[in-house]
Amino acid sequence: MPRILLGAICGVVFGLIAVGLMLPMSFTDKTAALTGAFLNRFAIGFVIGVARLPVPDWATGLIFGLLLSLPDAIITKAYAPILIIGTIGGAVIGFVVGKWGS
Fold this sequence. Notes:
With 102 residues, the chain is mainly alpha-helical. Helix content is 81%, strand content 0%. Helix 1 (3-22) runs antiparallel to helix 4 (79-100).
């Protein structure tokens, strides 16, 4: 499967997981929070599918998962959950795209 398509699919799945984890939480603007979380996690998958760095694929995912999660973590001051989930999810997507992407 093409890397871009696989990255986009992984991004959609990662976004849906993130939204699912956030559904029980309360926010002043829940729609904006869920949409932002979905788009951030989708972007992680998409960028990993497009990028090729001179490091192992899982490390590419880890790097982009961390970098793209940092703004949300800084804005919300919820560093640990956002950065941990983003970094682990990015590493998993990087591994998947590297293993099954063409």
